[in-house]
């Protein structure tokens, strides 16, 4: 199990979700992915995508400028 980081800053909807989906395809079950975003919609879109696709949101943290969503890769990879 390893931790990966995806820089999705300055990307607007739906690109943060699409990039997350494409990145996770190359990960193994149990790996973690920290997605760093600046689009406020990603805070809702990525967790919704995770629920549909069998992944688990471990943490969501935000500052005034960035949102970091940490995902544990689930079984539907």
What labels describe this entry?
single chain; 77 residues; alpha+beta; Translation Initiation Factor IF3; four-stranded mixed sheet; 2 helices
Can you offer a commentary on this structure?
By secondary structure, the protein is an alpha+beta fold. Helix content is 29%, strand content 32%. Strands 1-2-4-3 form a four-stranded mixed beta sheet, covered by helices on one side.
Task: Set down the secondary structure blueprint.
Elements: E1 3-8, H1 15-24, E2 32-37, H2 42-53, E3 56-62, E4 67-72
Parallel strand pairs: 1-2
Antiparallel strand pairs: 2-4, 3-4
Percent of sequence in beta strands? 25-35%
Name the helicity range: 25-40%
CATH superfamily: TusA-like domain
Question: Kindly, what is the distance between the CA atoms of the first and last residues, rounded to a whole number of angstroms?
Answer: 14 Å
Shape: globular
Q: What would you say about this model in short?
A:
The protein is α+β, with helices and mostly antiparallel strands and 77 residues long. It is 29% helix and 32% strand.
């Amino acid at each position: 199990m390893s931790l990966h980081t995806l820089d999705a800053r300055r990307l607007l909807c739906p690109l943060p979700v699409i990039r997350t989906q494409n990145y996770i395809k190359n990960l193994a079950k149990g790996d973690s992915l920290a997605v760093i975003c600046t689009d406020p919609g990603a805070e809702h879109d990525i967790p919704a995508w995770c629920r549909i696709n069998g992944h688990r949101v471990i943490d969501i943290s935000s500052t005034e400028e960035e949102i970091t969503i940490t995902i544990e890769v689930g079984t539907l990879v």
